[in-house]
Amino acid sequence: MTNGPDETSEAVGRYRRLLAVLPECYRREAAEELCQVFADEYADARRRGKADVGALWLRALADTLLSVPGAWWACLRENGREGMAGWMRDMRGGFEGLMRRPGFSLAVTLTLGIGIGATTTILSVVDGVMLRPLPYDAASRLVAVGATHESRATGEGDGPVELERLSVQGYAAVDERTRSFDGLAALEPTSVFLADAGDGPDEVRSARVSSELFEVLGVSPALGRTFLPEEHRADAEGAVLITYGAWQRRYGGDPDVVGRPAPRFYQPTVIVGVLPRDFRPPEAFFAAEESPEFWLPLQPEHNRYRNPRPTVWVIGKLRGGTSLDAARDEAAGVANELSASFPEATALPDGSAASIGINTLHDQTVGSTGGALAVFLGSAVLLLLLASLNAATLFLARLLDRGPELRVRSALGAGGSQIARLLVSEACAVAILAGALGVGFAYGGVALFLRYAPSSLPNLASVTVDARVLAVSAFLSLGAGLLSGLLPAFRLVRASRGGSLGSAHRSTSEAMARLGPVLVGGQVAVAVTLLAGASLLFTSFTRLRSADPGFETDGVITLGVGLEGAMRSSAPGTITDVSQAWDLALEGIGAVAGVEAVSGATSLPFQAPSWAPRLLLDGDAPGTWREGIAGYAVTPEYFSTLGIPRLSGRWFDRSDRGDTEGVAIVNRTFVRTQLGGREPLDLVMRRSDAFGETPVRIVGVVDDVVQARIEDGPRPAIYVPYTQFTGALQAILRTSLPLDVIAPDLRRAVARFNPIEPVRDVMAMDDRMGAARATPRFQSALISAFALVAVLLAAAGLYSSLSHWVGRRQRELGLRMALGADRGDVQRMVLGQGLGVALVGLLLGVAGALASGRALSGLLYGVSPYDPMLLFVAGIMLLFVAVLASYAPARRATSVDPVTVLNSQ
Amino acid sequence: MAESKEPLRPLVFAILIALNEESKHGYGIMKVVNEQLGRRALLGPGTLYRTLKELRDEGFIEYASSPKDADSRRRYYAITAEGREAARAEAARMADWVELARRGRLLRGGGAR
Question: Which of A249, A428, A467, A527 is 20 to 30 Å from the Cα of A7, by its Cα?
Answer without folding.
Answer: A428
